[in-house]
Amino acid sequence: AQTVTQSQPEMSVQEAETVTLSCTYDTSESDYYLFWYKQPPSRQMILVIRQEAYKQQNATENRFSVNFQKAAKSFSLKISDSQLGDAAMYFCAYSRGTSYGKLTFGQGTILTVHP
Amino acid sequence: ETGVTQSPTHLIKTRGQQVTLRCSSQSGHNTVSWYQQALGQGPQFIFQYYREEENGRGNFPPRFSGLQFPNYSSELNVNALELDDSALYLCASSQRAPDTQYFGPGTRLTVL
After folding, report:
1. Cα–Cα distance between A48 and A53 in angstroms, integer?
2. Which of B110, B57, B58 is nearest to B81 (CA)?
3. A16 to chain B nearest CA, in Å?
4. In this complex, how many residue pairs, one in chain A and one in chain B, have their CB atoms less than 8 Å apart?
5. Potential cystine with A40: which of A3, A56, A88, B82 (Cβ 3.0-4.6 Å)?
6. Residue A56: which pLDDT band, with cuts at 50, 70 and 90?
7. pLDDT of A98 above 80
């Protein structure tokens, strides 16, 4: 079974600084996708970024970028120029390529942004 | 474009009762997945529906059941509620491909 591990229960960052959230996963599949979702106190899970395993290039969405290390099964999220609105629980998630999007989530990392 | 909506927002039930939660998928999406999120935990996959048929199930007992309707909206039914069923229930919709999941705001269920 696939597992996703987030080893940092909590992280904090100063506004305008950069922070990196860690995620490792375990799978024997070659076709899969990785995601970072953000869940603010409003509870709605918001997609931050998506990475296809077959792509060597790391995904980027504005201030958010990933470091995808396929051999190490590592998938970290870098948030640049942190903003107060980035404060939330961040979840790393995995889906097998043939699973039609069924997600396996990590335990989450609470990110605090200090003004 | 209308996003994923869920109702009700909050619900309080007592042990042994039954509950139905509802989800309307995002426009253009034909697949709905349900997740259970206990407090402080990551969501756990319950099941997925595609074109009104169950298409995969997580490690949840049969008292968790669902439906998908022709308009792709969906219901999650839980019978014989237990205290451990207290959680946030999230619905996510997607296209078949790409299959990125888009989530609704969730229903907070409290079982007393």
Report:
1. 17
2. B110
3. 27
4. 66
5. A88
6. confident
7. no
